[in-house]
Amino acid sequence: MLELLDSCDSRRFRASEIQINPSFDTSSFMAVAAVATASPSSLIYTRPSSRSGGRIPGSARRTTAVVMAAGNGGGRRMPHVLTVAGSDSGAGAGIQADIKACGALGAYCSSVITAVTAQNTVGVQGVHPVPEASVAEQLRSVLSDMAVDVVKTGMLPSVGIIKVLCRSLQEFPVKALVVDPVMVSTSGDMLAGPSTLSGYRDELFAMADIVTPNLKEASALLGGMSLRTVSDMCSAAKSIHNFGPRHDHAKMYFSSVSCCDRENYHALRGSRVNTRNTHGTGCTLASCIAAELAKGSPMLQAVQRAKTFVESALDYSKDIVIGNGPQGPLDHLFDLNTHAHTAGARSFEANDLFLYAVTDSGMNRKWGRSIVDAVKASIEGGATIVQLRDKEAETRDFIEAANACLEICRSNGVPLLINDRVDVALACDADGVHVGQSDMPARVARSILGPQKIIGVSCKTAAQAEQAWADGADYIGCGGVFPTTTKANNLTVGLDGLKAACLASKVPVVAIGGISAANAGSVMQISVPSLKGVAVVSALFDRECIVTEARRLKSILMDSSSHAKLSV
Ligand SMILES: Nc1ncnc2c1ncn2[C@@H]1O[C@H](COP(=O)(O)OP(=O)(O)OP(=O)(O)O)[C@@H](O)[C@H]1O
Ligand SMILES: Cc1ncc(CO)c(N)n1
Ligand SMILES: [Mg+2]
Description:
By secondary structure, the chain is α/β, with parallel strands linked by helices. It folds into two domains: 2-42 and 78-337, UDP-N-acetylmuramoyl-L-alanine:D-glutamate ligase (3-Layer(aba) Sandwich); 350-567, Aldolase class I (TIM Barrel). Helices cover 41% and strands 15% of the residues. Helix 14 runs parallel beside helix 15. The two termini are 44 Å apart. The structure holds adenosine-5'-triphosphate, 4-amino-5-hydroxymethyl-2-methylpyrimidine and magnesium ion. 4-amino-5-hydroxymethyl-2-methylpyrimidine is lined by residues 85-86, 88, 93-94, 117, 119, 154-155, 182, 185-186, 191, 282-283. GO terms for molecular function: ATP binding; hydroxymethylpyrimidine kinase activity; metal ion binding; phosphomethylpyrimidine kinase activity; thiamine-phosphate diphosphorylase activity. Its main location: plastid. It is found in: Plastid, Chloroplast.
C-alpha cells in the first residue's frame, strides 16, 4: 500500500473520494488520486477565533515586546522557533534535534525543557519530568521577551505540563503552533503516559496549526484505531482534524507523509532511505515545519520542505556509526559539510521574484556588452533576482561568467540562479537553478543541490505546478504569458492560463514570456496572491539602457501591485 502511495506522486485528492477495494490496483488508485481540488494553503497565520474566544489575552504585552526588539538598534530579525520538548541525552531526538534542525534551516531556536531523558542508541533508560512550575517559568522567560514566531512541541510528559503550555500560549500568542504528540520513542519506550491523550485532544490540538503524529500516535489518539490502508489514514487524518487543528498531518511509516486540511488530503511522495539511523526523524520533521513557518512559508510548502530536509539528512547520514544499538541518530548539520558556504549567500524569499532578470547571450552580443556589465546594470536598475541563461556557452566559459556575476550579485544581496545547468550551479556555488519541463527533474536537482539552494521550475499548467511543489521547488515560472521572440515555438498560456496556474500553485509564481513595460501592469493586476513578480529578458537586455528599463519596469510593478492590494 505504501509503495502505491509512493508511486502516485503527490496529487491531491478528496478523502471522501477514496475507495480502496480489496483487490487494490495501481491504476484505479492513480485515477482517484488525480481528482485535483483548489489549494487551501493561505490560512496559516490567521488565528481561529475559537482559540482565544475573541480578544487574545496578553496580546498588548507581546506587541510591546516586538516594538522593543525593533527599537533595539533596528537590526536584523531572525525567524524564531521555540521548542517545548524533552532532552535526549543521545542528542538524536528531542530538544537537541529541534535546535539542530531549526539552525540548519536558518531559524533561531530557543528551548523550554519539559523532561530530562537518559537515552542512547539502545533505548530509553530514564525519564525525569521537569516540575510544572519550572516549565511555566521557562515559558514566561522566553515568550515574554524574545518575539517567538512559532512554537513547536515535542515530549510533554503530563497533562499538567500540557495545561501550563496552553495557558502560556493564551497569554503570549504566537503566529503558529506545531504539535508533535510524542508518546512512544522509536525504540518502543513510553515517553508520555496515556493520560496525556486527553490533554492533547481536549486542549492543545484546538490551538494547533498542524499536528504531526506518527502512525502509532495517530492510532492511540483515535482509541486504538487500526491504520493500515490509505483510506484508514485519510479517515484518521480527518478525525484528528476534528479535534481542532486546521491542518492535520498524519505521518506514514517510512517513506510517505500524508497531510490533510479541511477539504483536501495531500499525499507526498517520498523515497525510502535504507538506514538504521532514523532516531529523531519525527522531531526533525516537526521542527523543520516550524522553522519554515517562522520563515514565512505557507503550510504545504513548509511540510514539503521539511520532508525534503529529512530525506536529505537521512541519505547523508545513512552510513554513519554512532553507538552500538539498533537505531542511530542522523546528522542535521550535513549541509555544513557538503556545501561550501560563500559569504553573502542567503535563503530564498518570495519577494525576490518581483523583478526577475533573465540574461541572454545573443542580446549581449548584439549590444556589445559583457554579461557582467549586463547583470550589473540590471541590478543597478532594481532587479531582485538574476538568472544566467546561456544555451550555447562552453562549460568553462559559462562557469567563468557565472563566477564573475556571482561576485556582483553577492555584493548586492541579489540571488543568482543558473538556467538548466546544475553542474555549473554546483561548480560556482550559485544560489540555485531554474529548470524546464525537459531539463533535469526538480526532485533530482534538489537531491544534488541540497535543501538550501533555490530551485525554480517552468510550468504551464496546474498539474505541473503541483508536481513542482511535490518535487521541492521553491517557486515556479509560469508562461509564456504572451508570445515572445526569445523562445521559439513556445505555447502561450495567456493571462487566463497564468491565473489558473497561480490559483493552483502552492509555491510563489513569477510570470514569464513576452512581458515588457507595456503589459507588466496587466500581468500583476490578475491579483492572485501567489503571483510575486515578472521575469523579463528582451524588455531589459534587448534595450539600449538596461538601468533605465529596469527602473521603468520596477515602478510599473510597484504601482500595479499597490493598486492590486487596494482593490482586493
Ligand atoms: N528510512 C526512511 N527513509 C525515508 N524517510 C523516512 C525514513 N524514516 C522516517 N522517514 C520519514 O521521517 C518522518 C518521520 O518519521 P516517523 O513518523 O517514523 O518519526 P517518529 O517515529 O516520530 O520519529 P522519532 O520519534 O524518532 O522522532 C516521516 O516523514 C517519514 O516518512
Ligand atoms: C526527548 C525525546 N523526545 C522525542 C523523542 C521522539 O521519539 C525521543 N526519543 N526523545
Ligand atoms: Mg515522533
